C-alpha cells in the first residue's frame, strides 16, 4: 500500500503535463483528473505520453493498466521485431502475449534502466524461442547471423559462452561511432537487410556495406585482443 | 563460429545499445555545396572569362564554380597567392571496400597514413586493386613514359597506386576513422616515340590517373577544385570522343618562370577530365614547345592527348 501511494504521488506530479495537454485540446479538466488518477483507467492519450519511469511505476503498483500501457507505447516496436523473425502476424501476436507476461513477471523486482531496449531483447528472445519450438529458422535474421559468423570464422575459445561474447560485442560497439554501431545492430540484432540498414542510417548501400565490413573486421580484431578469439 | 552462437550472443547485447539503434534517426544527406547557386555563378562567369570556352554541363564532369583572382594560402607555409579556380563536380561511384581485392581489404585494416605501391604494368596494378578500370588499345600500344613520384616510400615508378586515408572527425568528438578513402592509380606512357619532330623529347608523355572513391564516413569526393596561379591562362573546352565519352579538357598556358635554382620553361599543360563507370580519370600531357632545343609542332600534344582519349572503350 505504501508503494501505491508513492506511485500516485510521483505519477500525479509528472502527469500534470498530460492533463494540461488534454485541457488545451478539449477544455474540461476536473472530472478527468478525478477519474483517471484513482481508477487507473488511463486514456489512450495519457498512455501514449507515459515515460518509461511511469510505465515501470504501473508495474510496481501491480496495475493491470501496465500491460495495456506498455502495449500501446512499445507494442509497434516489439511487434516489428517479432514480425521480422516470425514472418507471421498470428505468431507475432502470440509472441507479444508471451512477452507481456514475461515483463509482468519480471517487473518487479527488476527495474530495467533502458526499458525499450530491454523489451526489445525479451521480444527477440521470445520470438526465437517460439520459432525453435516450431522447428523453423528465422530467414532474414539467419542470413545476417551467418554473415557475421562467417567473418568470425575460425575457432573461438571453446568455453566462450554466448553471454560473454554478447558482453564483448557490447563493449566493442560502445567504442564505435554511434551511427556505425547503429547500422551494425540494425543488421545483426534487428535482422534488417543491408538496404534497410542503409535507409535507417541515411547512407548509400555501398557505404553501409563498407561500414559493416569494417565493423566485422574490427570486431574480430577486438575479440583477438581481448583473448576471446584464436584463429 | 556458428550462427546459432551469434544469434544467442545477440541476446546479451546491452539493451541501451539496442534501444539506441531502435530509435529513428533523421536522414543525413551528403552535402552538395550550393549546387544550383554555383551552377548559376559558373554560367554567369563564363561570359566574363575572356577567351574562355566553358561548358557548364558535361556528362560525368561539370563545372560548378569559377573564381578569378582570389587570394589563397597555397603553400604549406601559408603564403598568400592570387589564384583562380574552377570547381568541378564528378559523377563518381563510391565503391564498397569489399568490392576490391583481398589485398586492398587487408591494407584497409587500421589504415591511417597515405601509402603507395609500384607495379610493372597497369594490368598488375589492376590485379592488385581488384578492378578493371579501363580498356584502351592506344595505351596498350604505347611505350614506356616517364615515372610518377607521389612522394612516398615505394611511390616512384611507371605504374603507382596511391592510397589515401580519411581525415577523421576528432574535432567533432567522433572517433577518427581509419580506412582507405580513395585509391589513385597512375600510369606513365609515351606516344609518337622516335618521331624526329619530337627530339629531344623522344615522344609525347601521357600520364593517366584513375581514381576510385571508397564509400566511408568521409565520402565527400564528388567535387574537386582546379587551382591556377594568377600568371597562368586557363581555357576549358569540351571534347566528345567517337565512342561518346564526354571530356572536359583544360589547357593551361604557364609562362616561363625565372628565378629559383632551376628555371621553368613556358609550357602548355593539357589535362582531360572525365568519369567512366563511376571512376574519375585525369589524363595529362605537357607541351614543352621550344624548350631545350625542341620544336614541337603546334597542336601535336593536344592531338596526341585526343588520340588517347579516343582509345577509351566505353
Structural notes for this entry:
The complex is a heterodimer of chains A (231) and B (314). Chain A has a two-stranded antiparallel ribbon. Residues 1-40 of chain A have low confidence and may be disordered. With 231 residues, chain A is an all-alpha fold. Chain A starts with a helix and ends with a strand. Chain A is 75% helix and 2% strand. Chain B has 314 residues and is α+β, with helices and mostly antiparallel strands. Chain B is 19% helix and 35% strand. Chain B is built from 7 helices and 15 strands. Chain B has helices at 3-10, 15-22, 35-48, 102-108, 122-129, 137-141, 300-310; strands at residues 61-73, 80-90, 94-95, 115-119, 143-144, 148-149, 156-157, 159-165, 180-191, 204-214, 223-229, 233-240, 246-254, 267-276, 279-287. In chain B, strands 3, 4, 5, 8, 9, 10, 12, 13, 14 and 15 form a 10-stranded mixed β-sheet that branches. In chain B, strands 1-2-11 form a 3-stranded antiparallel β-sheet. In chain B, strands 6-7 form a two-stranded antiparallel sheet. The longest helix of chain B has 14 residues, at 35-48. The two termini of chain B are 44 Å apart. Residues 25-59 of chain B have low confidence and may be disordered.
